[in-house]
Amino acid sequence: MSLAVRYVVFALLATGANLAVQEAAIRLGSGLAPSILAGTVAGFALKYALDKRWIFFDPYEGRGSEVRKVSLYGLFSVATTLIFWGTELLFWHVWETAFAKYAGALIGLAAGYAVKFELDRRVTFREQRA
Q1: What is the number of helices (H) and of strands (E) in the chain?
Q2: Whether residue 130 has pLDDT greater than 60
Q3: Predicted model pTM
């Protein structure tokens, strides 16, 4: 399976986890913002684990290196999550339907993942040079 196919499959898995957790949170009586936050955390954890191991084949290089990678991954995730949240919330406020909210989420996640891949490839998981 090619890198691009793996990345898309993993993005879809993380997106599915994100949306499933959002839906579960809504059904449990959570509001819109808590459901979006819970979904985002679930998607982040799954995507990091998959990216580190199966996209960038990143080895363990010591605690300091791992802290740097997790921090950068998290920082870039926050930045690209703004694309996701902004699109999801825009769709919700324009059409005020669950379908629009999730359509906006899917579009926002796709755009965010495209930007995130480049940031992680070029910065987070780049080979360290002496």
Answers
A1: 4, 0
A2: no
A3: 0.72
Best CA proximity match to 91, nearest among 105, 112, 109, 111: 105
Q: Classify burial at 121, counting beta carbons within 10 Å of its beta carbon; exposed 0-12, middle 13-18, buried 19 or more.
A: middle
Q: Write out the DSSP string of 73-128.
A: HHHHHHHHHHHHHHHHHHHHHHH-SHHHHHHHHHHHHHHHHHHHHHHIIIIITPPP
DSSP type of residue 28: T
Tokens 């898995």, located at residue: 13
Token pair 């808590």 is at which residue?
34
Each residue of 71-125: pLDDT tens digit? 999 999 888 889 999 999 999 999 999 999 999 999 998 898 889 999 999 999 9
Structure tokens at 43: 């998607």
Q: In this structure, which amino acid lies at residue 43?
A: G
